[in-house]
Design a protein that fits this description.
single chain; alpha/beta; 32% helix; globular
C-alpha cells in the first residue's frame, strides 16, 4: 500500500480515476467558500479519483472524509497521496459500487466531481443524489462536470422526483482558465481553459 512500485505493477483498467480533472478544482473552491460548514463534518466523495476534493476537505477541517471509488488502484494512489500529505488519519478510502443496492454512508456533505463519464453513469449519480436529498437530515451536495458529454445532464429526472419535496436543482457555469493536467488520450500534461458546470444545494450563502 505504501509502495509506489506495487502500484505501478497493476494494470490500469479505467484511466479516468487516475487523471486530474477541472471539476475537482471547482468542487474544492466551493468547499473552501464554506470552510465553516466543512469543519468537524463527515464528507463523502463519490468517485474520489486522485483525491483532490478529499484532501481539500481534510485540510479545511473535516473530521472524517470517506473517499469512495470502484477502482482498487485509484484508492491505493489516493491513500498514498493522503498519507504523504499527513492526512491519512482523516481520509478513509472505501471501495464502493454506485450501482450496488448498498446505501451511501451517512454524511454531512456529498461531493461528486467530474464523474459523469457517460449517460448511464450520470443517471446513476442522479439516483444517488435523490437518495441522499430525501434523507430526513439531507446532506449538502455539490456535483461538478467539466466534460459535459452528450446525455449526461441528469437533472431532469432528479428534479422530477425531488419536486415532490420542493427541491429544484439547476446548473451554474464557470470558466476555469489555464488548467494544467494530464490527459487520457495524450501523453504529458496539457494546459487549457475549461467551461465547467456545477450544481449544489443545502449550503449557506458564502
Amino acid at each position: 500500500m505504501d509502495s509506489a512500485s506495487t502500484i505501478s505493477k497493476e494494470k490500469i483498467g479505467d484511466p479516468f480515476g487516475v487523471v486530474f480533472w477541472p471539476g475537482s478544482i471547482l468542487a474544492s473552491r466551493v468547499l473552501a467558500e464554506h470552510k465553516e460548514e466543512i469543519y468537524n463534518s463527515t464528507v463523502l466523495i463519490l468517485g474520489a479519483g486522485t483525491g483532490v476534493e478529499a484532501q481539500a476537505s481534510a485540510m479545511l477541517g473535516a473530521r472524517r472524509v470517506i473517499a469512495t471509488d470502484i477502482s482498487k488502484l485509484t484508492l491505493k494512489l489516493l491513500k498514498y497521496g493522503a498519507d504523504q500529505a499527513g492526512l491519512g488519519g482523516i481520509i478513509e478510502p472505501l471501495q464502493f459500487d454506485l450501482y450496488s443496492d448498498e446505501s451511501l454512508p451517512e454524511c454531512d456533505i456529498v461531493v461528486a466531481a467530474d464523474v459523469l463519464y457517460n449517460e448511464e453513469l450520470a443517471k446513476q449519480i442522479g439516483v444517488r443524489c435523490i437518495e441522499v436529498l430525501k434523507r430526513p437530515n439531507s446532506p449538502k451536495l455539490v456535483v461538478t462536470d467539466s466534460q459535459r458529454f452528450h446525455g449526461t445532464d441528469f437533472l431532469e429526472d432528479v428534479n422530477k422526483d425531488l419536486s415532490k419535496i420542493g427541491i429544484h436543482l439547476e446548473w451554474e457555469y464557470f470558466m476555469l482558465g489555464n488548467v494544467t493536467g494530464s490527459g487520457v488520450l495524450i501523453e504529458g500534461d496539457q494546459t487549457y481553459d475549461s467551461k465547467t458546470r456545477l450544481v449544489r444545494t443545502g449550503w449557506n450563502a458564502p
